[in-house]
Write a structure and sequence with these properties.
This protein is an alpha+beta fold. The protein has two domains: 7-169, no CATH class; 246-375, Heat Shock Protein 90. The protein contains twelve helices and six strands. A six-stranded mixed β-sheet has the order 4-5-3-2-1-6, covered by helices on one side. A hairpin with a 2-residue loop joins strand 2 (297-305) and strand 3 (308-315). Helix 5 (87-96) packs antiparallel against helix 6.
Length: 375
């Protein structure tokens, strides 16, 4: 498919028709001219103008090449009766510049220069007048063809850049949708699991310990409100509430599920993206313990080893090597995007190990060590 000048310059193609005035010079200034010369001009224009319009409407190189050839032939035939017919070759060169690839456009323009040479040989116009008429046509053919080839190639390059920008925007939107899907899964999966656990506990305590059951249901209400805020935050791009906050949430979730928790955390100062990724990995791992492990004890460990930050969540539950769900898959994608890795070992209980490479300068800062047990 050929590229035409952009829509904003369509009106220019009609302004360029002013150069057809060259056809009128000979009958206007030649005392030997008569009515037949003017009729010949009308006939030439009657053939040329439809070709000119069709040339800018052609969508295939083959069509455009035929139109350029027809214009060149019209120039050759017209030169036998009117020296100004060489202007048709200039218009043909202007259209030929939009042929693809560029090499083809250059060859066709060069062929049109050869057509002008042929016209110089066969024209019946006296030699001085023939020279004065065809040499400017030769210059304009070369200049017009070269200028339009440059413009056409520039327009193609701009079009490729626009397509690349559109593709980048499409991929960015797709990545953002995937990010939101992963975040919503992590946020709601954890929270809804906690709500289910606390609701079941409240139902069991409703008869025997109504006061405690009421406390559990108030926790369910609080967690639900927090979940609503987290979902709103995720939609606008906030990834997690931080590693410290996520540790507190993990303790509460494990305690509500009756899982004794041991936490060993040496929390470094991390870039936001790293802390968010680790926080969501912790949330997903603890959610899986609460949902699937049937464990009695879980250990959460966060340490800095050389230039790596390591998060481990291990439990003494059923373990196994079942297929990975969407949560673990999303965790792997998120961690891999930062150059890290996720390992899962289900031989003795379940152990999830997340490592993120972080430069020493990034982890320098205040640290807090804490070790606690909860049942």
């Amino acid at each position: 498919m050929t590229d035409r000048p952009p829509d904003g310059t369509r009106w220019m193609r009609y302004i360029w028709l002013v150069y057809l005035v060259a056809l009128f010079f000979q009958p206007a200034f030649d005392p030997k001219s008569d009515l037949r010369d003017w009729v010949a001009i009308a006939a030439l224009l009657g053939v040329f103008l439809p070709l000119y319009v069709a040339g800018y409407r052609a969508v295939e190189d083959r069509q455009l090449l035929l139109i350029v050839g027809a214009m060149a032939a019209l120039g050759v035939a017209g030169s036998l009766i009117n020296g100004g017919a060489s202007v048709f070759v200039i218009y043909a060169a202007a259209l030929a510049a939009y042929l693809e690839p560029v090499r083809r456009a250059v060859l066709v323009v060069a062929a049109l220069v050869g057509v002008l040479g042929l016209m110089m040989v066969i024209s019946p116009v006296p030699l001085p007048s023939r020279f004065l008429g065809l040499v400017p046509a030769l210059v304009f053919t070369i200049v017009t063809g070269a200028a339009n080839i440059f413009d056409a190639e520039r327009e193609r390059a701009q079009r490729r850049l626009r397509r690349a920008d559109e593709e980048i925007e499409r991929l960015a939107a797709l990545a953002e949708r995937e990010r939101i899907a992963r975040d919503l899964h992590d946020l709601l999966g954890h929270t809804l699991s906690l709500i289910v656990v606390k609701s079941e506990l409240a139902a069991r305590l409703a008869q025997s310990e109504p006061a405690r059951a009421g406390d559990e249901m108030r926790d369910v209400e609080r967690i639900g409100r927090e979940a609503l805020g987290e979902v709103r935050a995720a939609v606008v791009g906030y990834r997690a509430k931080g590693l410290r906050g996520e540790l507190d949430g993990a303790r509460r979730a494990l305690a509500a599920a009756g899982v004794e928790a041991t936490v060993e955390a040496d929390l470094p100062a991390l870039p936001i993206a790293y802390e968010s990724a680790l926080a969501l990995a912790l949330r997903e791992s603890v959610t899986n313990v609460v949902r699937h492990a049937d464990a009695r004890h879980a250990t959460i460990r966060i340490v800095v080893e050389e230039s790596r930050v390591v998060l481990e969540v291990a439990d003494d539950g059923r373990g196994g090597a079942g297929p990975e769900g969407a949560g673990l898959t999303g965790m792997r994608e998120r961690i891999a995007a930062l150059g890290g890795a996720v390992q899962r070992d289900g031989e003795s209980g379940m152990r999830v190990r997340v490592t993120l490479p972080v430069e020493a300068t990034r982890v320098a800062g205040a640290r807090r060590s804490e070790s606690s047990g909860h049942s």
